[in-house]
Each structure stands twice: as structure tokens, then as C-alpha cells.
């Protein structure tokens, strides 16, 4: 046995379990407004923070000590004060910032709450359907991905695809598949007022939130349905789309190949399907040095895998990798598969024609 390797592993166990506990504490801070108040009134002592957030000073002091140890909070021991630096505010408090990251804590904590059900699924099969997940999970996903839709989608991703913005500006029918709480649909409707955007999601609470989020846009509509249902309900005279987007959702689906086929049927003859999937390698060893891919590998059984297996689905897991995406596209009958020139560390973008 290599003692150095053992030490390394023990160090990793400590880092990972520390991460699990501090995720819980960060979620508590997010929920109780501790980060927000620190950002607003800091430097402040623990009593001042407790008073401002109507919480118990003793808990708040212990929370501050832990969060400061992890580098999420600044501290002056001589003055016994605590505050957030500008970078900590951007990542932990400002939901509209391009680097907001606190939604991930919410997603992690609420996902880990399903551990007992997941143990049963490991033993007996099946899974936890999207509708059975904690009600905060869909909003947590929206918060995790918000920066994409507030800043990247129409600001960087779509403009990187040659010719697309000009077509959107002249007016396209757009389908936003798996739109969740509708933030992407709203961003598209706002950026391309001459295009007509349909957001599609079968999860009723998400579709209701998406209707609310897009309510001010006359060129946006939300359909509460699966792709298959949308394709089937319009069989007599199906609506076709010049652009179909599927962001971070095909791998979650029970029938990803069926979904890709339905998308193909719903595309106009010269339409473009922009398909994005989480980055990361299908080879787990290549993910060892990639912190985002590691998070995705770890969350997969808790979310992407289990929501699909709950429907007796394909259970692809979170990371398809380029090869996995190519195979699915081929199985769905696409004969072109292009890597789009979109620069994103988080999502890989593929372009497909019918
Ligand atoms: C991980 S979430 C991503 C949501 C959003 N695109 C984002 O990136 O934040 C996956 C979404 O796909 C939706 N979904 C699952 N199966 C679907 C299907 N068959 N047709 C359309 N949407 C589906 C889920 O309800 C969920 O909102």
C-alpha cells in the first residue's frame, strides 16, 4: 500500500465531507438571508447579523466561523466583524450576476434529501420521477442556470452560430424544449421580438412558473406537454419550427431517441436544431481534474439518471459526451451532426438538420 496515496485519499474524504456540510450551511445562509444581509450591512458582528436576519446569534456565529474557514465570508478577528468581498457577493448574493452560484447549494441539499429513496432505487430499480422530487429542485435548477439565460444564451451562444441571429431577427418560429421555469423562453422572446417562441415542458409547476415568467411577452407561449405529445397533438397539421433549442434536457428524458425523432419531425425543412448537453467526458478518468464534470458525475444518480429510470426510461445519466450525443442523433435518423462554435465551459453545442 502506498502511504502517500492513502494520505491523499484521506485528504479528499475530508475535503468532500467538508464540502457536503458547508453546502448545507450555505443553503441555510441562502434561505435565511444571511449572505444577503452580510453583503448589505457588513462589516458587522454576529449579533448585528442575527438581529438583521431575525436569527439566533449563537447559530449565526458558528455559521460565520465555518463559512469564513471555507473562504465564503471575510473576517477581522480583532474587530470581531464579518463581511462579503465583492467577488463573494457576486457569487453568493446577486442572482442577476453572470457568476451567481448559490443555486447549486440549494440543488445539492434538496437532492441529497432523497438519499433514502435513492437507496431503494439502487436495490429494487425504478427511480424518483421529476414530479416526485422536492418542490425546490426545479427552481434550484432555474437559479443554477439563470446566468446562462440572463447573459449567455442571446448574448453569446446564439450569436456564435453563423447566420442564426439574422434569421431570428427576421422572424422565426422557435421551440424551446424542456424550458423549465421559462427563463430561456423569456430571454429569446425579449431578444428577438419578431420571432415567435414556444416554451415546452411537461412538469406542471415548471410550466406554470414559465407562463408567469413569459407573461409580459406577446411573442411567447408555454405548452405544458412532452415533445411526443406536442408532435402527436398536431399530427393533422403540425406546427413546424425554424429553430428548435434543447438545453440541458435530452439526457434527462425517458425516451431521448424518441424526443430527437419528434424534434426532427417538428423542424422546418431548412430549420436548425441546437442541442446542448453538459460538458464532461464519457470516460470518468478524464473527469478527475474537471471540477464541474465531477459535480455532474456525482449528481447524476440523484437527478438525471433517476428521473429517467423512474419512467422506465433510457437512463443515460448527466454526461453523454460527444460520442454519446452522436450515437443518439444517428439512432434518431439525423444524417448531419455538427459541433457548433459556441464557447462554453458548461455546455457542448451540437447543430442538427432534419
Ligand atoms: C435539467 S432541466 C433543464 C431546464 C432548462 N432547459 C435549463 O437548462 O435550466 C430538464 C427539463 O426537461 C424537462 N423534460 C423532461 N422530459 C421532457 C420531455 N419529454 N419533453 C419536454 N421536456 C421534458 C423537465 O421537465 C425539465 O424541466
Instruction: Name the average pLDDT.
Output: 97
Number of domains: 2
- Helix content percent band: 40-55%
Structural class: alpha/beta
Strand content: 5-15%
If classified by CATH, what would the architecture of the largest domain be? 3-Layer(aba) Sandwich
Instruction: Note the total helix count.
Output: 16
Can you describe what's shown?
The chain is built from 16 helices and nine strands. The chain has a seven-stranded mixed β-sheet, sandwiched between helices. Strands 1-2 form a two-stranded antiparallel ribbon. By secondary structure, it is α/β, with parallel strands linked by helices. The chain has helices at residues 3-32, 34-41, 46-53, 57-69, 86-92, 103-112, 115-124, 137-157, 164-170, 183-191, 204-213, 227-233, 256-266, 291-299, 304-309, 321-331; strands at residues 74-76, 81-83, 173-177, 196-200, 220-223, 241-247, 267-278, 338-339, 347-352. The termini are far apart. The structure holds S-adenosylmethionine (SAM). Residues 130, 141-142, 145, 177-180, 184, 200-203, 206, 226-227, 247-249, 252-253, 259 line the site of S-adenosylmethionine.
Condensed summary:
The protein is of the alpha/beta class and 354 residues long.
Features:
354 residues, alpha/beta, Arc Repressor Mutant, subunit A, Rossmann fold, 16 helices, 9 strands, 50% helix, globular, binds S-adenosylmethionine
